[in-house]
Amino acid sequence: MEFHGGTMDESVIDFSISVNSYMPTWKDQLFKRCAEISNKYLYVEWIEERFKEKFGKDTVILAGATEAFQIVGFTIMNDANVVIPLPSYGEYERIASYMAKRVFKVPSKNEIDLNLDSAFDLAKKLSNNGKSVIILGNPNNPTGKYLKMRDDLEDLANKVTIVLDEAFVDFVDEKLRWNVDHPNIIIVRSFTKSYGMPGVRVGYVKTENFKKHFEKYRSPWALGSCGYAFVEFLIEDDGTFLFKSMQSIKAESKKFENFGIFTDANFGVLKVKNAHEVQKNLDKLGIHVRNCESFGLYDRIRVSIRKTEENERLFESLRKVIR
């Protein structure tokens, strides 16, 4: 599905999805546990208190970041003016289209850099005449760039509901990460990208003002047996897998800079003449990338950072296709 990337063609190396190519050592145990409990209706409430002890009392477990966005779109954005700085993840505009009074897309500056000054000013202005919501990803999708902390973030949050998508924040150096603590900011996070299992739908929101809201509107049994088992293993996980795999990805990311791909996460964009044609030609070489047409970027492809030997295949193919 080109809107989100990904392929079922197992003959190619999939660089189009931004997922950790490493997986934790407890993966096989996880799926064994998934089978053991697949004959049950599993209530997330049974395990949520243990989850909160590790990730915070203001958290709510959901079936991936996507369920969080669905709830935001149908409820929090209802009758609101929604501001989306571009380029951004296409789901933001899709969920805003459900119930928002109006959607304002703020064009980028320098082709791909978010114009947050204009976006913040607009959101504040709109808050004077009703409900205002701004949604942004950090790190940004598709660029992989991590935004610097804003001095005016708290001032904005006093007037505007901020939905902060941190689905890829595990890939960002901890020293760069925002330390956000405001009741009117909804932080959305995902685990299964960083643990290499996006097919297991587990994420959470961190929010003070809207905690009961997400508990009310989330779907019952949405995690399924594998998601529930994932949370069990996640609670016991000591962080070794994430630390080691993130170090490997960070080391590999330096090689991507030779092609003009600079990122703070595990994916980035490369400027080309025709993204659609480059994607087709790379497919023929067994490399699948994401063309960024759905982001409004017709001259860029997005690639993820994978294991060393896979990255070398990508580089070799890029040299053949992009002359």
Write up what this structure looks like.
With 323 residues, this protein is of the alpha/beta class. The chain has 2 domains: 13-22 and 240-321, Aspartate Aminotransferase, domain 1 (Alpha-Beta Complex); 27-236, Aspartate Aminotransferase, domain 2 (3-Layer(aba) Sandwich), CATH 3.40.640.10. The chain has helices spanning 27-36, 45-55, 64-76, 90-99, 116-127, 153-157, 211-217, 224-236, 240-256, 275-284, 308-321; strands spanning 13-14, 59-62, 81-85, 102-106, 132-137, 161-165, 185-190, 203-206, 267-271, 287-288, 290-291, 300-304. The strands form 3 sheets. It has a 7-stranded mixed β-sheet with strand order 2-8-7-6-5-3-4, sandwiched between helices. Strands 9-12-11 form a 3-stranded antiparallel β-sheet, covered by helices on one side. Helix 1 (27-36) packs across helix 8 (224-236), helix 2 runs parallel beside helix 8 and helix 3 (64-76) packs parallel to helix 4. The longest helix is centred in the last third of the chain and has 17 residues, at 240-256.
SSE string, helices as H and strands as E: EHHEHEHEHEHEEEHHHEHEEEH
Biggest sheet, open or closed, and with what strands and sense? 7 strands, mixed
The radius of gyration is: 20 Å
Question: Stretches where pLDDT falls below 50 for ≥5 residues?
Answer: none
Which fold name fills CATH's third level, the topology of the largest domain? Aspartate Aminotransferase, domain 2
Distance, first to last CA: 28 Å
Number of strands: 12
Structural class: alpha/beta
- What is the mean pLDDT? 94
Give helix % range.
Answer: 25-40%
Shape: globular
How many domains? The number is 2
Strand content: 15-25%
**Strand order of the biggest β-sheet:** 2-8-7-6-5-3-4
CATH class bucket of the largest domain: Alpha Beta
What would CATH call the architecture of the largest domain?
3-Layer(aba) Sandwich
The named CATH superfamily of the largest domain: Type I PLP-dependent aspartate aminotransferase-like (Major domain)
Number of helices: 11
